[in-house]
Amino acid sequence: MKQEQVPQDQENLNEGKLAKLYYATDEKGNYVKVNSIGWEPETVAMQQAWDVVNDEVETARNKVIDGKASPLLYWIKKNIMTTGMVAAYASTFGFMVRLHCKPFFFNRLSKKQLEKYAYTFRISVEELTDIERLKKNDR
Amino acid sequence: MTVNFNHKQSAHCENGVVSNLLRFHGLEFDEPMVFGIGSGLFFTYLPFVRVNGIPGVAYRIWPGQIFKRFSDRIGIKIERKKFSNPAKAMDALDQMLDKGQPVGMLTSVFFLDYLPAAYRFHFNAHNIIVFGKENGRYLVSDPVMETTTEISYEDLARARFAKGMPEPSGRMYYPLQVPGEFNTEKALWTGIKQTSDHMTRIPMPLVGTKGMKYLAGRMRKWPERIGDRKAILWLGNLIRMQEEIGTGGAGFRFIYAAFLDQAGQKLNNDKLIDLSKQLTKSGDKLRDFAYYAGRVCKNRKSDTKTFAELGDILEECSQQEQAIFNELYEVSRSK
């Protein structure tokens, strides 16, 4: 890649916070360092990965609103976690986390357990249990 | 306590941390040098390791190896520590900072709030350097950022004790002793020899240039095997592994070409400079591959023809790299 070919696509997901370093050649073929603010194929691939995540969050949100899942499921998806990871943070077991994704079990959780989950997602217990708020942020 | 820390941006986090840490201790190694001596370049396709159902692809050696190999070859003694809980880990960090010693550590990208939101997946092997503390916030030199940044105590503690695979467990490291003199020439050749050996001579179909060829062959069948939607997701993942943060372009091939360029000048070896130019060409081909793959992902439609064509480009790359690393092996074998 030549120095002047380093892509600078304005449409990127870097929020202006980041200009990555690339290695490119100058006119003699020697390597120099060049900053790049973005490249379309990479942005497309990244957007695609986030679309999958957002789809899952949206599905989980609808399930919670329909009463088929507990808000725990929504927060797991929102934080791009797996039940195993959540179990490690909340010091419990993966199958327990999967159980707690059902409203029946979630509604019987102790305050202590709820606090553990809230700590995992860095939110308050009120936010964790609030289904009304999920209904409101309709897209 | 703040020390005077000279931060330089790099393409990849591990090289950058090594380069920046050693600069503080008086050794000047540019990023490509670290990458080359540490034998960072590699290729593996791991269809049986699935992340969210997507097969793993790596264009580099696994995390931690570059640093290990580099320090072995130059002769740097490194102190590595691991902790059982965040409070202990943060205390140990504070003690090191009080001594005026910058510390490298493993973190999870998810909790580093100075990075753009789009990059913050749960990737648990990101290297950063913490070099000071001001008003309760830690001063961070993240090699992929242009300038130094800062982070709060809570976020850093979280990032160091993220869960999932692999767990950083508060791992931190710093050089104990740097050698007065060392044999750069020998280290360079050892690094080149190992990379070229691993790229061409491991008798397994999934690694090195054989891995690229294998992946090219499998890719042609993706649409009919797993359906269009999944095939496009897998392709997107391939682009991300090749071009997303930290590769310096074309899945580390450009960093390695830069290394060969620098090594050739240092050793007065025209052959290395010539091979660097060839690697640049095959790297350009990988960029083309990412470009066309990106087009397929963007239009969200694929027919087997496009995937077959993409497979052809990748196979061509594997043939070119096979020739380059074979030659490199022959050059480095006698040294």
From TrEMBL, chain B:
Residues 12-143 form the Butirosin biosynthesis protein H N-terminal domain. Signal peptide: none annotated. Residues 154-328 form the DUF4872 domain. It comes from the Bacteria. Pfam families: BtrH_N, DUF4872. Coiled coil: none annotated. This is Butirosin biosynthesis protein H, N-terminal.
